[in-house]
Amino acid sequence: PGDLAAWRVDPFAGEVQDGVLYGRGAVDMKGAIGAFVAATARFLAEHRPAGSISCLITGDEEGPAVNGTRKLLAWLKERGTRLDACVVGEPTNPTRLGEMIKIGRRGSLTGSLTVHGVQGHAAYPERAENPIPRLLAMLRALSAEPLDPGSAYFQPSELVITSIDVGNRASNVIPSEARATFNVRFNDRHSASSLEARLRRLLNTGGGRYDLRIEVSGEAFVTEPGPFSELLESLIERELGVTPELSTTGGTSDARFIKDVCPVVEFGLVGATIHQVDERVDLADLEG
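The structure assignment produced for this chain is given below.
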């Protein structure tokens, strides 16, 4: 929650003030869960569906994602249960309810790079092997050229350097190693394996000893526009008077697992305050 004193309410109690619900998770994404449950109850009070409606609520999406959705999908497969379609309640709208549906997501790859050298005295650099210049040259090689120009449904892939560190407390000592971390949000022109191969080719041009550890949280995917997205579009236009944009921007969600078993789209609340102090949602948006 951050600084509890900065909140106008107890972030874990939830409180309505002037038609606005405040609390941690009000938008991301307990609000969407509440809307799903309420909508399902109203629907079942008036209709008998031909199939079933299921709500999956998991806390593992923000973590390593080894449990939660992945385990549930494996369990469904073992039982021979088939999913026809899925809506994920991520907060997809930038400023106004109804303006954006996510039909896909970029993949995410994190690289941890360690460049090895030989420690020594800064007054005698010829007796050492400074890893810092090599690390900087490697990072320049990784980020010098655009990864791609984008694709039909995706913006260009991006490599962002997020950390550079040598852990050196002395100003007259050449360190034995230098480390950097970078993240790549990649589109459907790449897979994690093809991207890793490209990164290693670029790093190998720098020579010298290095280690690269790769972690992948999800591959890029897209649910091609069709009957499912068109149905959601028509409902949004009817209920909210807004024509939504079909987008693949943003981070990742559990849709990266669900897309392997059925068509999946994401639609939720306005995400302007997610993970912030005083996270909040208009009650009118929840009702909408």
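Interim note for the steering committee: The chain has a mean pLDDT of 94. Helices lie at 30-46, 69-79, 131-143, 192-204, 227-240, 255-258, 283-287.
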